[in-house]
Amino acid sequence: MPLILQVPNEYGYVLVAASSSFLVNLVHFFLSAKARKASGLKYPIPYATEEQAAKDPKAYAFNCAQRAHGNFVENQTPFLGALLIAGLHYPTAAAGLGAAWVTARAAYAVGYAKRGPQGRIGGFLVSSLSDLALKGMALWTSVQFAMAAYA
After folding, report:
1. Domains of the chain, CATH where assigned
2. Could you tell me which residues come within 8 angstroms of residue 116 by beta carbon, excluding any fewer than 6 positions away?
3. Under a CB-based contact definition with an 8 Å cutoff, are residues 119 and 71 in contact?
4. Could you give the CA distance from residue 97 to residue 126 in angstroms, rounded to a whole number?
């Protein structure tokens, strides 16, 4: 029997949270580009070497901005999946957690780029808790859909 999927009226909030994560990627782009220019490292060099970073604070700052951006890219896709699935049954809660994740990831980006690894801690904690909650909600939503298919 086919599954008919209706999105809740509040699902638009979920889409706003999802779309706003694209803006955080732009924040990362600008932070990395600014740090690259200041460091003098040319494309296609992805990171300063350990020796360069040890000698030059601007090269170290570039590495921090690049690593923050890489971490964001690693985490955005799983976040989006969890958000979009969880939002099918819990749209307002998912949107709220999505907004918290996006805000925390922006703080993570700026903190890491400006203060190094210690500057990312606050954003990391909030985004990790939000992400964990979204993944739990997504799993439960998926189980509910699977159980309904056999009802």
Report:
1. 11-40+49-149 (1.20.120.550)
2. 60, 61, 64
3. no
4. 10
* Three-state DSSP string of the chain: CCCCCCCCCCHHHHHHHHHHHHHHHHHHHHHHHHHHHHHCCCCCCCCCCHHHHHHCHHHHHHHHHHHHHHHHHHHHHHHHHHHHHHCCCCHHHHHHHHHHHHHHHHHHHHHHHHHCHHHHHHHHHHHHHHHHHHHHHHHHHHHHHHHHHCC
pLDDT per residue as tens digits for the range 82-128:
999 999 999 999 999 999 999 999 999 999 999 999 999 999 999 99
Q: Say which residues have a Cβ less than 8 Å from residue 100's Cβ, sequence separation at least 6.
A: 126, 127, 130
CB 86 within 8 A of CB 131: no
Kindly report the pTM of this predicted structure: 0.93
- For residue 64, the tally of other CB atoms under 10 A from its CB is 23
